[in-house]
Amino acid sequence: MSTPRQPRETRSAGLEPLAVLPVFVPLQGKRAVLAGSNGGAPWKVKLLAAAGANVDVYAPEPSEELLAVPGDIAAGSVTLHHREWTPADLTGAAFAIGAMEDEDDCVRFVSEARKAGAIVNAVDRPHLCDVKFGAIVNRSPLVVGISTEGAAPVFGQTVRARIEAMLPRGFARWVGAARDWREAVTGRFHGFSERRGFWERFTDRAFAEPDRAPTERDLEELLGQAEAAPKGGAVTLVGAGPGDAELLTLKALRALRNADVILYDDLVAPEILDYARREARTMLVGKTGHGPSCRQDDINALMVSLAKSGKQVVRLKSGDPLVFGRAGEEIEACRLAGIPCAVVPGVTAAQGAAASLGVSLTHRDAARRLQYVTGHDRRGALPEDLNWGALADPSVTTVVYMPKRTLGVLLERAIAEGLAPATPALVVFNATRPEQATVTGTASDLAARIEAAGLEGPAILMVGEALGRREAGVSVESGQDRLAI
C-alpha cells in the first residue's frame, strides 16, 4: 500500500528573469518632443503620432523624409520647428526622443528631458534610454510588442512577421468592439465569473469569425448566452496527455484557462500548468504508483467542497482521465453531491508512446485487437483476474499500464499461459518527454533488460507482433532524434 499524504497547495515558480519590462504607454492627446533629424527620426515621429500624441519636432535642417512625415500620419499631429531645441521646449512633454548625431548634444537633451518629467528615448543610444522601441504587430487596439533587447533585431522582425501571419487583421474590429461593449457587460454582470464567461464566449466567436465586423446582434446573443449559462461551481476532468504540453487539446487549454482551482497529479508535466490563468490556485493531489499518494476519498472531498463553494475546478490527470485514471470514482462523487461534471479526453500514454516510436499498435498484418490492462490491483500486486488467454493471443497488441513492480511476474505467467517467448515487447519510460527512454526485447528477456538499464520514471509496457520492427536494445529519444545506447 502507498503512504498516504495530504493535498497541498503549490505555487508557480513565477516569471523567468526579464531582460526588459514590457509596458504600454498611452499617449493619446499628450505632448511629445523629438529633437534632431538622424536616420531614425522619421519613423519615431510616425510612431508617436500613431499613438495619438501631438508631436513637436525640432530640427534646424530636417531631412526630406522628415519633412514628409506630417503628410503621412493617420492620428495625432506633427509640428515641425526649423530650429534647435531649447530646454523650455520640453515643458509639458510626456515623451521625448533625442535623434541627434552628436553624443554630447544627445546627453544634454536626455538630461533636460528627464528634468521635465518626460519618458526618454535616444535613437541608437541604448545607454541613454529610459525605454526602447521593439518590433510591433498592429491590430489596434490589439498591439503586440516584441523585444530582443537589441541582441537580435532580425530575429525580432521575423517573430513579428510570424505573429502578424497568425493574427487576422479583423481582430482589430473585435478588440474595438470589446472596448465599446465593456461598460455594458460590466453593468449587466456584477460577478467576476459571469463577466469572464461572457468574454470567453466573445473570444471564441472572434477566433471563429475573425474577418467580419461584430454587430450589436453579437452583443445581445453573447449577453444572453452568458445569462443562461449554469451558475455555481463545477468540476471538469481534463486529460493532460502523457507529458508533451503540445499534445494538449484545444478543449483542455480552454478548461485550464477557465479554472479557478486546478487539482493535479505528480505525473502532469509542470509546463502544462503554465497554460492556466495566473490567478488560478494549483494544488498537488499526487497519486503515484507505489509511492506516497493522497487518498482518493480526500481528493473527492476536496474537489466537491471547492465546487460547492462556487469554484470552477479542473481535475488534471496525466494521459486520459478515463483510462486507468480513477475517473469513475470522481464522476460518481460529483454526481452524488449534485455537482456538474464534464470530461475532456486526453492523448493516452499508449497513443503518445506509440506515436513517438513510430509504431502502429493495430498493424493490419500483425494485430486484430488492441487491449489495455493494468499491471497491479488495489494492493499493488499482479491482478488475479487477468484474462491470460487474451494476453497470450498472438493477434493482439497488449498495453500494460503501471507495470514496473509486476512486469517480470506478468510476462513469466503470460508465457506459461501460452504467449510465445519470442513475442516482441518493449517498455517506454517518460513517454513523449525530452527524457523518454525505451527498452526493447522479447517477452522472455525484457525484464532482465529493464533491470540492467536502471531507468526511472512513469513506464508503459507494450507486447505484440505489431512491435516487431524495432531492434532490441535501449534508446533515449527526444523529439525527432533517437540515440541508441
Automatic annotation (TrEMBL):
It comes from the Bacteria. The active site is at D265 (proton acceptor), K287 (proton donor). Pfam families: CysG_dimeriser, NAD_binding_7, TP_methylase. Residues 172-225 form the Sirohaem synthase dimerisation domain. It catalyses: precorrin-2 + NAD(+) = sirohydrochlorin + NADH + 2 H(+). GO terms for biological process: cobalamin biosynthetic process; methylation; siroheme biosynthetic process. SUPFAM superfamilies: NAD(P)-binding Rossmann-fold domains, Siroheme synthase middle domains-like, Tetrapyrrole methylase. Keywords: Cobalamin biosynthesis, Lyase, Methyltransferase, Multifunctional enzyme, NAD, Oxidoreductase, Porphyrin biosynthesis, S-adenosyl-L-methionine, Transferase. Pathway: Porphyrin-containing compound metabolism; siroheme biosynthesis; precorrin-2 from uroporphyrinogen III: step 1/1; Porphyrin-containing compound metabolism; siroheme biosynthesis; sirohydrochlorin from precorrin-2: step 1/1. One of its GO terms (molecular function) is precorrin-2 dehydrogenase activity. Residues 235-447 form the Tetrapyrrole methylase domain. Belongs to the precorrin methyltransferase family. PANTHER family: S-ADENOSYL-L-METHIONINE-DEPENDENT UROPORPHYRINOGEN III METHYLTRANSFERASE, CHLOROPLASTIC, SIROHEME SYNTHASE-RELATED. This is Siroheme synthase. It comes from Methylobacterium haplocladii.
